[in-house]
Structure formats: C-alpha cells, structure tokens
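User: I'm putting together a small comparison set for a docking exercise, and I want a reference complex before I start. The sequence is below, and the ligand is flavin-adenine dinucleotide. Could you produce the 3D structure with the ligand included, as structure tokens?
Assistant: Of course. I'll restate your input first, then give the structure tokens for the complex.
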Amino acid sequence: MDFTITKREEDFRQELRAWLEENLPDGWLEGNRELPKEKDKYSEFLRNWQNTLYEGGWTAIAWPKKYGGRDATLMEEIIYHQEMVRVQAPPLVNYIGIHMVGPTLIQNGTEEQKEQYIKKILTGEQVWCQGYSEPNAGSDLAAIQSSAVRDGDRWILNGQKVWTSFGHLADRCFLLARTSHNSEKKHKGITAFLLDMNQSGVETKPIVQMDGRQEFNEVYLTDAVAYDSEIVGDVDEGWRVMIALMLHERTGIGAEMFTLEKQFNDMVEMAKEFRVNDKPLLKDPFVRQKMADFYARSRGSLLNYYRNLTNTLKRGKPGPESSIDKLLVSELTKEMAGFIMSIQGHNGVLWKEDAPVDTYWQDNFLGSFGQTIGGGTSEVQRNTIGERVLGLPKDMGR
Amino acid sequence: MDFALSEEQEMFRGYLRKYLDDAGQTKVAREFIKGEMHALKNSLAGLAELGCTGINISERYGGLGLGALDLVPVFEEIGRALLPGVYLETMALVVPLLEKYGSEEQKEKYLSEIASGSKNVTLAWAEPRKSYNPDEIACFAREEEGALVIDGMKSLVPDGELADTYLLLVRTSEGTGGDGLSLVLIDGTDDIEMRTQKCVDETKHLAEMTFREVKVSKRQLLGSINHGWSILQEGLLYLNAALSSIMVGGMEKIVEMSTEYAKIREQFGQPIGRFQAIKHRIVDMKLELETARSLSYYANWSLESEEKDRKAAIFSARAFTTEAYIRVASHNIQIHGGIGFTEEMDCQLYLKRARYFENYLGSTSHYNEQIALAMGW
Ligand SMILES: Cc1cc2nc3c(=O)[nH]c(=O)nc-3n(C[C@H](O)[C@H](O)[C@H](O)COP(=O)(O)OP(=O)(O)OC[C@H]3O[C@@H](n4cnc5c(N)ncnc54)[C@H](O)[C@@H]3O)c2cc1C
C-alpha cells in the first residue's frame, strides 16, 4: 500500500495550478463565479472557457498526443479533476464530446469523421450531446422507438428524445435510432448517428428542472436528415458502439468524489459559522455525531474509489465495480445535501438570495436528485452490481 | 498510488484461510461454546506455527519485525472464522505498547513468549457497572516497599481465563480526566479471584476479576507511574484499527453467505436472489463491506505512517464498521428466512459478535465524538 504520488505527478499538479491561476476568468478565484443568465451569453462564456483550456493544452488530456491530447495517465486525470474541483472551475460545456464522443471516434471512427470532428471537439467550436433516452425508453434503453429510414444516400429520422443534457447548446448529437424492427433481440437493430443539431428537422425544447435550471431538453426529430458518413460503426450495430463509448468515461466518478469531498469540507465550514441559539451549529451534539458519520462515509467512498482505481491500474481497464462508486457517491451526496438543509432549521427552506447561508446548499440539495437518476438510476446500478459483481441471477425481463 | 495489500500479504491470507477452513471454520467457535477447548488450542497453536504471533514483534525478540498492515490478513481471517481468544488484545494492544513503552526487562520477558505463541495477554479496564470514563476507575494500587498493592475489581475482561497476563488499568493517585492512572502487567496468580461472566456472544468468555491486596513488583508498570491513560490512548489506536479488520472479515463472510443462499434458495419457481428486495439488500450490504474495508485498510496504513489524519482515519474506521457490521449481520438473518433464525445456522453467531463489538472499549457515539475532536471541531 502506498499513497504517495510521484514527482512527475506533483509537477503536473503544480503546472496546472499555475496555469489555472493565470487563466481562469477574471475574478473567478476571488469568488466571483456568476455565469451569464442569457442562453447565448452563457454558451459563449463556456465555449470561450473551453477554448482557453484548449489553447493551454488542458482539454482532453487523456487523448493521444496525435489528436491534440497529452497522453495523460489515469493518475494525471485524477489530479486534473481534483484541481478543477478545488477551484470550482466553470463547467466543461463539451464534457460529452471530450470524454465520450471524441475517444470513440478516435477508436472506431472513419478517417473522415476524425478529420471533421476531433479538432472542433477540442476547441469547443462543436458542442456535443447524447440522445439516448426517450419518453418510453429510460432505464430500458433498448426500447427506443425513434426511427431512421434509408432514403438513397440519406437517412430520415423521426421520433422524440428526452432529458438531453446540453441539447440546447449542442451542435451535434450522438444519437441512437432504430434502423431495424426485425431483430430477435431488441438491442440489435439500433444504429449510432452523429446527428447535426443545426437543421430544421431538429427542434430542441428546454425542460425546467426541479432546481430551476434548464440544462436538459426534449429533442423532436421531424424528418431530420443524416448521411451514411454520419454513422459510427455498422448499421444496426449501434448498441455495441454505445457500450464502448460509455467505457471511455474512465474518471467521471472521480470528479463527483472530489466534489463530495469538497462539499463535506464546505459543510464543516458552514457549521462552524452558522449559529443556532447563539452557538455554532458544529457544537451541537447531534450535528457533531451526524457529521462524524458523514466523515466516515465520505472518506470511505473516496478510499473505495481509490481502491477500485488501483484495480483498474493493475488490470488496465475498469470493471463493473465502478457502479459501486457511482451508487455510493450519488446516494451520499443526496443524503448529505438533505442533512445540510435540515440543520439550517426552519430557515433552511429559504432559497436564492434569501438563503440563510448561501443558496449553494439549497441548489445542491435539489440538484442531488439528478445524480441518483441520471446516468442510470440507483436501482439499475444495484442490478448491475448484484448481477455483475456478485453473480446473482438476472432480473426478470432482461 | 497503490491501495491494495501486497502480493505476499494476499498469499499469506490464502494459507490462513485454507488453514482455518480445514479446521472447520466456525466449528472451532462452536466447540468453544460447548466448553470444549481442544479445537481452539489446536488452531491457536497452528496460527503460531504459521508465524501469526510474531508478525509485529521485533526480530530481537523472535518476531518478524513487520507492521500493522501485515496483520490485516490475519485479523480479517480470524474475524471471518469467529475464532475465540485474545489474539486481538495481545497483538494489537499489548505488543505495540510493549514495543513503544516497555522496559528492556519487560520486552525480554513478554515479547519472546508472545512471539512463540506461549503467552496471551488481555486487557482489564472496565469495572462492574461502570463506563469507560477514566474518572470512574476505582481499582487502586498503593505503593509499598517497591511494590504495588492492588485492591478492587475488573469486569468484562475479554477471555480472562484464556490469558496468562493482564494489562490492568489502575488508579495510582487521585486525579481527574485520566490523571493518576497507571498500566500494570500482572501475571495470572491464584491471588486473583476470577469468575466467568455470561456473554450474549457465547464465543466470548468474559471475566470478573477481584483483587484483594494483590502484590506486584513496580517493575511491572508499563511506562511511568500515573501516565497510563495517555499510553492506553495510543494503544487504542492500534486496537481499533485491528478491530476494524476483524469486523471486515466477518462482514465479508456474511455477504458471501447471503449471496450464496440467494442463488440456491428457490421460491415462486425462481432463486430468491432474482427478487430485487433481496438482490438490492445484498448489494447494499456489499457497499457497506467495501466501504468498511477501504476505511480499515487506510486506518491500518495510517498507524505507522504518521499521517496527520491518523486519528480521524482510525476512529472513523472503527465507528463506521461497528454499525455496518450490525446492519449486515441483521440483514443476513432476514435473507435466510426461517432457517436464519435457527441456532444451527451461523447467521446468529455473526450478529452476536457484531453486538459484542458494538460497545467494546467505547460506543459509536463516543468514537464519533473522537472523530469530531480529531478533526479539530
Ligand atoms: C440530470 C439528468 C441528466 C440526463 N442526461 C441525459 C442525457 O444527456 N442523454 C440521455 O439520453 N439521457 C439523459 N438522462 C436520462 C437518464 O439516463 C434517465 O432519466 C434514466 O436512465 C432513467 O430513465 P427514466 O427517467 O425513464 O426512468 P424510468 O426508467 O422510467 O425509471 C422510473 C423508476 O423505475 C425504476 N426502474 C426502472 N427499471 C427498473 C428495473 N429494471 N429494476 C428496478 N427499478 C427500475 C427506476 O430506478 C426509477 O426509480 C438524464 C437524466 C437526468 C436526471
């Protein structure tokens, strides 16, 4: 067992820190982290930030050098996430492009596709989203009904997607559509398209989330057009491509772990400052007990993540244990956020500019529900762990 | 970064597991419950032969000179087999304290015998109907011609009858908050009256000990007089880290039992493990196990690394694992249905062990408060 990091890794951290201090948007490090409200300004702000990252060589660090990455090791990626969380860097608008679509194209894409998309993903010129879920296909993703029908050298797409994160800002969508209804297995007959979002057949309608934000969308396809050149992998074989794409997301859970760690530390600070009956909340015996328990559990989750990471490093690829990390971190985040609101007492229901401490906590609480649903619900994670880690019999109907 | 036991440590675990499996796993504990000590004596001798009793003892005294992490596989396997005895107290409390604070004479006298497996030491701390609060220690030792004369009672002494020597917490002068307490090593003699106490966990034979004018040489003091409390606190770090490993071993076995049973037991024409009410509960048990294991590995690692979060790491491992062990042990019974409620199944043994550890040398709320203090809250 050895938790030390190498000199090279430490240098990497220092280099990134120095760069961030130079290049974060004005006032950011001093706590001025307001993002523009208006959609176009918001989009521009985040694209600019991504381009700044690009110019500094700090996007897609895990990609091969040949494609504009840094060939970063897994540990370097971890350090990268730690540092980004530490400074609460602006969100990566092209997260999906960088962590999923890009690596998939590098691996499975045609030369033309690489030529056309890779660079633009890096610079933020082309923002990507993922179009999987549909009104009747959520956890049961293979039930999708959106169809793509061949028409000469084109494909005509019809149907509806839902919960498409970044859909309102995206230029391209990694989209799954049904191209055949005759397969015995329902996940056969699905094809992966690199759909152009900027066409009249694609209509995006933002959905207001329970935390007041509008980050995901409904996407309507009405005779939308895609070309053969916009198919990844083979026709009817999109499921395989999609699974491979998901595996590229090798450290995303880490970012959530470090965010949880940060939230824990922020919670302690809040509990030192927030007073009830003229006493710091942290001195309340009940609060201390609960916080000590949260300490154990959040540390435990992070250490567990490190232990799985060690396995990944040794085996060279992640295993189904990553579902354990996702389940632990999302459930704990939700519970902790709920606890923080409740210890703020009756004032805890106040929101936005009236929040008793900082609306960060109320926002976190509301936002945390997205984590136990998005990317596969906690129940589906439990099925995965039960079946793939413990070897229990498969759920009925699958 | 490498967050795993080494290959040698895992290989050693393999030997141990095979050895304890061959001994019949929980069969040793069950014989012990019936009052038959033979199987336990054999197993303990076997562990000594495998080198388990010398791992963290210096080579000068016949040990292997290794560290706390090398004990982890042993503690996990002992916890898995529910092996009775005072291995925990001897190896994870007395040995590190002797190594750090023992006089040369004490080291020579005790460490080599512990290493060879011929000596067991247990801890005599609590007193009848008293808490672990230092102010409540009444057992008194007065000085008389280079000797200490001890009067008082101890209760809940882990396996008092199996031990050869006792690490006794006594009051040597008035004081509050741990001042005036001392640690004394007392070898078992007929002068000490001993009564076995019944324990819900029948794999534990607790003892009540009465001292009436029992005389020991002052050379038996561990560390200096009146400073025993702070020494004990250091020992508790080792003890709690090791205890977490024992509990992880038990939890691991429980998750295995539940998983296996859910695969073979059929109801409504299918294995019960297909029902999500069962499957998801077992997964939650698995999450508790993995979290506990990570915390306990780190706790044992931090013991010798002088990390600044050492105390918080150890206390959080202890507090989390104690509660988690109780939860998984309880779920295991439920998952087994009617048969889980029987004496015949091992499910009950683990639950009883979990409850034994729940308040062993401090409650969860006590350890939570220790976390808070260690964090500077
Ligand atoms: C913040 C956020 C961002 C998202 N971003 C995207 C995106 O960018 N692109 C995209 O395509 N999708 C996205 N999603 C959609 C997300 O993947 C789905 O919401 C999720 O997979 C669940 O599907 P559903 O909403 O249809 O719920 P349902 O599948 O209808 O589930 C409803 C309930 O039933 C339970 N359930 C369903 N099946 C089972 C089962 N087999 N066993 C036990 N319980 C079950 C679920 O756990 C849940 O509690 C996002 C969702 C959120 C919340």
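Chain A has eleven helices and ten strands. Residues A 129-133, 138-139, 163-165, 216, 370, 373-374, 376-377, 379-380, 383, 395; B 276 surround flavin-adenine dinucleotide (CB under 6 Å).
User: Thanks, that's exactly what I needed.
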